[in-house]
Fold each of these.
Amino acid sequence: MRMIKALTAIAAMILIAACSNDQQAAAPATTTVTPGSVADFRQNVGDRVFFDTDQSTIREDGRQTLNRQAEWLKKYGNYQITVEGHCDERGTREYNLALGERRANAARQYLVAQGIPAARIKTISYGKERPDPVGSDEAAWARNRRAVTALQ
Amino acid sequence: MNTRFDMMLPRRQTILGGVALAAGAARPANAQLTIDMTKPSFEPVPIAIVDFKGDKVGADIAGVVRNDLQNSGLFRSIPPSAFIQQNMDPNAPPRFPDWRSVGAAGVVVGQATTSGGNIKVDFRLWDVVVGQQATGLSFTSQPDKWRRLAHIIADAIYKRVTGEEGYFDTRVAYVAETGPLGNRVKRIAIMDQDGFNTRYITDGKTIALTPRFSPTLQEIVYMAYGENNAPPRVYLQNVESNRRELLGNFPGMSFAPRFSPDGTKVVMSISADGNTDIYEMDLRGRALRRLTSGPAIDTSPCYSNDGTQIVFNSDRGGTQQLYVMGAGGGGERRISFGEGRYATPVWSPRGDFIAFTKISGGSFGIGVMRSDGSGERMLANGFLVEGPTWAPNGRVLAFFRQQPNSGGRAGSVTLHQIDITGRFERQMPTQTDASDPAWSPLIPQ
Amino acid sequence: MKKLPLRLLILVALALPTAATAQRADPVYVEDRLNQLQQAISLLTGQVEQLQYRTQQLQQQMEKMQADYEFRLEQVEKGGARPGGTPAARPTTPSTAAAPPAAAAGAADQVYNDAFKKLQDGDYAGAEKGFRAFVQRNPHHALAGNAQYWLGETYYARRDYQNAMTAFAEGYKVYKSSPKGPDNLLKLGVTLATLGRKSDACAIFARFAQDYPRATDLQKRRIEQERQKNGCG
């Protein structure tokens, strides 16, 4: 898990670097993301948590991400939230739809327990229909077993 | 190109099946023009299908018949270039020694004639071994239905030789997949069993999955996502008019629909607060009845052929396994006890077998077991094989194969058919990548 | 493998109080606890299903064996014809290959069932190979005593009384407390008597009451019949 966090951090840095490059910003890279924006949420909070195979239990690393999400969402109360549940491709289509729903619901329940109003959070399952990243190895599958907090 | 999709021929121009052509009394089954497909080994029956008389369409019909029979794995179509006897009279007995010497057990001859805006096709199957007619039929239809006539002829030959009902005059609904995997377009398509006459019945704006035919073929049920991130719902769509309606407006997701054998009910999964159970909807009054409960995922329900039971998939025992219950719920009992996870059970139209997807040891397989769970047999294996569906004779299955993705690109997804002995597998042609096949019943004549 | 769910349940049970002290007020704790209990229940559900299935299979096996046994007894009681008498006349098919490797428990059951089927079909050579392979590879299997007994029967049916005697004797010695123990003893005595060793047979029958005080009435009656037939004191 530590590795995935490290990867996320690196990805964030690359993104930030790219942004700052595009905008030719003189200021330090971290300030290019507007606090309270969707980009801020994705890069500085983390919009997704990961699950073990066939499981829908929020892992310790996921709790930390969801704790940060809850804090941020309390601060920026203008967003409506949809938690998307996803699965890797190593299951059958219909079962995975149900499993994705379970994962989305687990993340939602956690956010509600942290004080986010239940009415603010919808859930949707994409089963194995929306892989990200696309790949057929253990690393790709681990990243695909996920619940993504999308903001509207 | 005829884009309108005629699911059924208009009644008055219905195909006139069963007009037997009298020429020699029908003889009981012969040793070489018959095949017992349940035997552990057999040789495909060598058969010669002569181009039918009557312009181009006669040759086209013969081509479709050849293709159907060859694709079943039970026949070996002798190439026309090997034929000795030429310019045959479709009504006279063939020169049997000529056909024996090319190794044919049977010869099919026929003719197509057009009159009064209709096409009339008749054919005879000659048993070369005993030197007599084995069967002969005549059909009339609209000229643009010639492919269906060819499939019906292939079904008649298949039935005469195997003793089993044919499955060539059928359609297959499936999910046509295009575009990059991360943003894949998935829409419902319907084609003839041999890959012709493909027609798309959803527009691809949202993901549509798991189509299933009604017993009359006039409707399909499927699951589709709503626009703007609305959760998936089950739709009932008339395939002639394309009119579609939502089956129940539930707050959560509804999916995995399937018709009851009498077409009056649809069984499906509905999720609420992360929990998925099975419900039955009566199509006449739209009344909804819950059939399972509890915190487990209960999905992929499928009625038995007589409609009295439902086989489904549940993880109540820790992993996905197959269970059978009464059609009204209750009396649930587990039937799968092998190693691995079991999913997508489908009851054979004959009632004898249940086909399933099995995941074990990191690979996927398609298998069959008797309806009490005994006698499990695996037919096909691969990186990812899923979603078996029965041909109406219960002797052939279709499913899909997905190859591994690599370099950020999607692996190919293709439809395949296999006979229940697992001997003969072939890819079914589709215009795009394809998954979730649903084999229709025989098209009503 | 079989103990795993139970162990997990204990782990869950142990983990819960610790978590409780740390996070009693946390609503997440309640959610966790529910999840854990649900998982434990589904593991147990799966386990119960497996056990029911296993029991059902054993029951079917037992019924089949009992029917076969009673049929054989009946044959013996009718005019004293030996069980091997008639079946020996049946056409026997040559056994094809050695029994498949019995790696898993399921495979072992398969070997046993196949051998039993061969016995019923009168393929005594095939049944012999199957039962011998089963006992060799699964000496501690619940059905090992049964397999040893039926191994003896495959010889007895072919009137190979020497090998039958050895097999039944081993069954009686090694699997004394198996459900087939009394039958092994009985057939050992019967075989000895057939070989003309009546005093040895009587000595074996004499051990019956002491070794198997809880034998069925049928078994007791059979022993008594044999004792009388052989003039045991």
Amino acid sequence: MTHAIPNGGSLQLGRLGHKTVGLLLVSPAALFLLAFFIIPNLLLVAYSFTAQMRDGVLVTGLNLENYRRAFEVDLYWRVLLRTVRVAVTASVVAAFFAYPLAMVISQRGRFAKIVTLVVVAPLLVNVVIRSYAWAQLLSRQGALNWVLDQAGIAENAPQLLYTEWAVLIASVHVFLPFLVLPLASAMEKVPSTVVDAARVAGATPFAVFRRIILPLSLPGLVVGMSLVFSLTAAAYVTPQILGGNFAPLVGTLIEQQVLSLNDWPFGAALATLLILTVLTVNLVFLKAVERRTSSWTAGARE
Amino acid sequence: MIVRPSLLSIVTVLILGLIIAPLIVPVMMSISDTPYMTFPPVGFTLDWYVKVLSDTEVHTSLIVSLNLAVTATVGALLLGLSCAMGLVRYRFPGRNLILGLVISPLIVPLLVTGLALLQFFSQMGSRWTFAHLAIGHILICLPYVVRMVSASLLLINPDLENAARVMGANPWQTFWRVVWPQIKPGVASGTVFAFIVSFDDFPISMWLSDATQFPLPLFLQTAISRYFDPSIAAISTLMIIFAIFLIMVLELLLGVRVRKIAG
Amino acid sequence: MSRVNRRTFGKLVLGAGAVAPVYFSKNAWAQDKTITIGIWGGSQGEFIKKNVIPAFQADFGCTVLAEEGATLSNVSKMRATQSNPKYSVMFVDDVVVSLCKAEGLTEQLPREKMPALAEVFPQYIYDDYYGTGLGISMASLFHNKAITPPASYADLWKPEWAGKIKLVSPRNTPAMLFLIVAAAVKTGKPFQDAQYLIGDAFDKVAELKPNVQNLYDSGVQAANEVAQGQADVGLIEYSKYIYPYTEKGAPIDLGFPSEGTFAGTNCQVLVKNGPEQDLAAAFMNRMLEPAVQKPLSEYALMAPPVNGVELSDTALKYVAYPESEMARRNLFTPDWAFINQHRADWTERFNQIFSA
């Protein structure tokens, strides 16, 4: 997210200097974020280290008890692991679905427009409704099994609803647009002359994809995959409706600790772990691919 | 850069089918003339639509959601416009920090931000639920507004602004005559998107709402666990129709490129 | 809470006491006041939101805001707002009435302001007027009408039920009833003795896992899915979440295994230092009046906790009412004080078995 700053394109307000005007313009938003985003989040993280519920009574004082509990009771670390597993799988699976769609979109034209609309459409349908719709599709007497039964493929197929699979399928569906669109933007930047040149030189379509499109679309892929990862890991509605408490993610546990069990400090600790997980995976992801992109694209760009 | 047109098209159409299929199921279930939900639907009735549309709770939640979305959009625009101008057109110390700060609400899980705000407001002893919700929603709309306005600002040739200034226009005139007409599409898409983000928000509202302010997405979740009959499928269908309507507005009226929404 | 209001209220009560029923002609003292109450979801909550509250608001010129929630979250809300109370009345299960009193979350009901208390059966007045019953449900297993329910809970552990059972999640009170069932099945003892042996019965709970399709949070949703045939049996749920749909023609019914049936009583409590206590008392009184109890009981199909309600024949098919019928059914009420002590620990163990 770095913008090139054109020289001399700025407005100078009266006697105020260039820097001052810039700071004045950004300060309302910056102060708002400081007051209502940075400070509350820091307070929440701090709370997880300074408070603890002991037998329903709030005890304050610096301690690591909440974190000891999160890692000692297998329930909590297992749910954390599941959260990471589902989120990673969702972003990988989404990538497979996203490539054909993004390629079509990047080619422009009427078909591309229709594809864009269909990809974006679910984004405008509330996530509660989308998850609920999947529940109706995946249940034992649901639409999917009905179709399988009618087509004579499988009778009494087991239900996918209330399994980790259901959570995964719905997460991919719900968050797919966040991967397709950045990917399509990245692909649009691939100059068609490069592709044509490769074709003329006799490259197979697969080679064109592997050598040119894939490397050049990597930045879009990384942005999209980290978005899908973050959104899936922090999801509450989808696992709640489709997991049936058999496959809860961390979000569900946080809600339970705070709203049902009134254990705010432990809820804050789980929230802190969720922030850490998302930030770490995002960073690792970006760094790892950044290195590869630079080496790959170095060849492709020239 | 087509790999193999036919194969790619077939795969694409299949995936599009997968994307749309789950949205069709509730539409079908909503017309079932049974006191409970079933697939495939049995018989035909529109009773569930009548029931839903005459439900005062649906009305109340809808009004809350609309109020909230308008407030959040206006708030995010007020903060976001000047912020985008500052970020794109000026260099100042800490600029990169501010850039990071502005997009950070998208990185920190919303669920956590909502909880943090709830704790923050309750420590302050504040009881003004609507303000809490509005602040939370402005937080999540702001990054999109800044990003979309910045994107359109970057497309403007700064020489035009220079030219206007050289020819004696004051900063306000320069803004209204030169900059504004060109960033209008960016502002329009920022507005529409902020509205949608707020209108659909669940993870922030789930912590900050109460009985006086109960936005529609939360009502929908309550409805799933409350309604035994297909009225929830009817609500879903209405929401899907509303989404299609939104897409048409985006495409036809604003001429906004829909894909900007998540790109 | 201004003193003038209390005094005015007292006068009104004195004046109105002579004129039964207790509908004040003009409840000017309540005009423009607002109370927030916590209620349950399901058909009972729906009825209260759509019928009871609008009528009460019209009579008193006040505003009643209702938040839906389960017992545990309602208790959490009271705890979270204890220093600066926001709620005036909370609906909770009988389970926690004494717990709320012990934690200082609730207040004794002002008997002089609640004339309807006189008709409440004594067993549904809790902890020396720290709460009253609102409706009595039976709690048992529910099943799709197409299948024959098991004669004994013990049968549900057999492999033929694999993946066919919906189990209530430990957030909900009936999960504790299920733990009693598990202990009873393991030890062969009656509920009365089995409830003290739950701590050793978690191996039995774990044995049921292969047969469980999911843990449900919403009784209504689970009932719906059983009606659709997604699962054959659900356990354990209050009759108020099942019978209203049976009556509407959904293929679902309550089953009564030989081990016994539980009683589940929905209660109301007055929040300590909650806003507008007089209005809160008036609302709680309204909830106990036959004019509310009759339609509420007939809608949600629960037994009224008050004497002298003339229920329709349809309702009488489903509920244990009047008192003689309650006695005949011999519904079991657990030792909630004992169970509450262990609930947090049991909830974690329950979650470890199913969610880890």
